């Protein structure tokens, strides 16, 4: 299969491993230049939890809303033109309101709830929602089995959303564990993407390495598969100029006594990378990464502020992949 | 226990058997003149169903919203000042929208869903919601076990909400069945109200006899209990001047070849009534009902258009009860 935009052309199937905002942005870019059958966006579900009886899949929804072009551009989560009557009423009734579910967002959650109650898998429910949002490209939960991320802090383990949303990432992160990871199977769509003979490569999006990408990589069999010589894996650094563009990655690195740098990200993904993409502001690190890991490094603009820059990074990344 | 409003005073505990709008109106009236511990409002749950994965209890919610003074006065269901962003979005996503759940109403349903998921009973969930709405009087689902009303029509059996909401009561009703009724137990609150030595009487509210009150009466043990001599039962006719003030009761009577009259309602409740309340416009039927059933009949205004008339009917009904 060949994807073509203007003069751009890419052969084969691409798997994107993605978390929240940064991953969804690059996924949107990839969706602009790859045909629907050419792209599998595999999304972290370690952030998933149940809240108010609703099954919440934050990273899946960020991806759905971003590719469906209904995302809230200011928050990075939820839908545009959102209203809050349900949450206001919930507050009046003394319900939990720390996790912000807008009225329109709740429609997604009710559909997911009813699909799961009908016996559909999370993959099937996600496919239905994607179709309803007019999305042609495959958005695949990393697994249909529950995996739940906990952040180990000095005061004990916190469920991820409590750490991330309720406590605004304030506690010190000492380590992370993914409950259920030992028995969770990669979703059928993820697995068949990996087994696809036309797989041209795996792109690790600029998502949080510890809590967005590691749950995907830690699924049984995934690291082994990605280490195989014929599987090309490239990662785009989520750290730019010593900062994470969004989210707690840099704060986590500081707490883990790791420098917040692209080089640390490359170290984190050691043994699975065939190539690495860093931002122009970090160009000085290209040499050390290349020599340490014996992989080529692409230096380009990785900051995706509009559709043009998302598409440009997708294009740069895939062209780089083709050279490996 | 003694309830007192102005010069009104009532001794003992009262159980109201109630369905939707009419029942909730009289229940509100009763709550104005009885102390919280004196009144148990037992609500039909035969209308309950699951929709979009949410547990829906229409009659319980009508009662909650009416006593909590947040009801929508125009529709007879749902909350005042409602908005519809979730339902609009659900429609865009191709979801089911025939059952109208407003954004504020959804908050109630999410709380109920989460309480049930925590292992709470419908009674406990209802008590939590009542407390959240500032309601002091007990609102009790008739049962915590599922009972589901089906309307038998020439084209087969319809789940109640499909008949009532989706098809707007258009199909001809030939009979009714209450799935699960054989094994459903009266809720603990309902049962303890019936067993309360201070029980002064049971008021059957002006609700639909076939689909609102019969599910309550058909619960195992209830009719037998109400037939006991020491249990005084009075019903307020939901039929006034040949019409139901709300809902399909008169239409159902026509389809069942029963005259739509208070007399037919008294016939329907034969053997359990100690007294019957009819509207002044039907005064001419008092004699025939008294002689047929050998019970006294109170003739008064039963049309409840404001809080004053609700309270007045409650007062008339309880004073009548005291004379039996």
Structural features, described:
The structure is a homodimer of 324-residue chains. With 324 residues, chain A is of the alpha/beta class. Chain A has a single domain, classed as Rossmann fold, CATH 3.40.50. The first copy, chain A, has helices at residues 21-33, 58-67, 85-92, 103-117, 122-132, 160-166, 188-195, 209-217, 222-227, 249-255, 262-268, 286-293, 307-323; strands at 2-5, 8-11, 13-18, 39-43, 49-51, 54-56, 138-141, 148-153, 156-159, 175-179, 199-204, 233-236, 239-240, 243-244, 275-279, 297-300. In chain A, the strands form five sheets. A seven-stranded parallel β-sheet of chain A has the order 7-4-3-11-12-15-16, with helices on both faces. The first copy, chain A, is globular. The two termini of chain A are 19 Å apart. The model of chain A has no long low-confidence stretch (mean pLDDT 95). The interface between A and B is medium-sized, with 32 and 32 residues.
Indicate the radius of gyration of chain A in whole angstroms.
Answer: 19 Å
Helices of chain A, by number, come to: 13
Strand content of chain A: 15-25%
Spell the H/E element sequence of chain A. Answer: EEEHEEEHHHHEEEHEHEHHEEEHHEHEH
